[in-house]
Structure formats: C-alpha cells, structure tokens
Amino acid sequence: MQLRAMMKIATSVFTVAVVVHAVTSKKSHGRFLGVPFEFRFPTLKRVRKRWWNREDPRMFTPHVFGVGWSLNLYQVRERLSPAEPAPEAEHEEPSKT
C-alpha cells in the first residue's frame, strides 16, 4: 500500500474517532488526543480570530470548523516579510565650547 493511501486512511479513521468522541461526550469543540476539533457553526468573529489575529503569536490555530489546525495568516505574513530596518538614531555633534 502506498504511503499516500495509508495517510488518507489514517486521517479518515482519526476524523471518525473525533466525531464519535464529540457525539458521545456531547462536546461541540475541544481536543481529542491533543488535536483540536470544532463542530460549532462558523462565525465571522471566529474566522477572524483564527485566520487573522494580531494578538495571537501562534502560526497554527485550531480550525474554524473541523479537525486540526489552520494558519494564522497575520503571523505568516509577519514572519515572511522582511524585517523593517530600525530608524537610524540622529547623531548630534558634540558642541565645542
């Protein structure tokens, strides 16, 4: 069996396990074996909080809907953009008195 096929099967089995966990525990969001899941209806506020959040230093945030992680695109942009040079300090000539 090819690696790609095995990964698809493993991902599918894990997703089903998360859904079963969510249904049996009556949780619409949380973590299963350390992996976040979110089955609440997505809201604009949650989309922005997960995909474009200046205040969250994480690059990977929980999905807006589903199992796993999303990218905080603000943090991706900040880390990929070249660093801005620090403003040069103005040097004053010492006065000759």
Largest sheet: 3 strands, antiparallel
The proportion of residues forming helix, as a percent range, comes to 40-55%
Element string (H = helix, E = strand): HEEHEEEH
Major beta sheet, strand line-up: 1-2-4
**Care to count the β-strands?**
5
Strand content: 15-25%
Task: Specify the overall morphology.
Answer: elongated
Number of helices: 3
**N-to-C CA distance:** 85 Å
Radius of gyration: 23 Å
**How would you classify the helix and strand content by structural class?**
alpha+beta
Q: What's the number of domains?
A: 1
Question: Low-confidence spans: pLDDT under 50, at least 5 residues?
Answer: none
Overall pLDDT level: 88
Gist?
This protein is an alpha+beta fold and 97 residues long. The chain contains three helices and five strands; from the N terminus they run H-E-E-H-E-E-E-H.
Structure description:
This protein has three helices and five strands, in the order αββαβββα. It is of the alpha+beta class. It has one domain. A hairpin with a 2-residue loop joins β1 and β2. The chain starts with a helix and ends in a 17-residue tail after the last helix. 6% of the residues are buried. The model has no long low-confidence stretch (mean pLDDT 88).
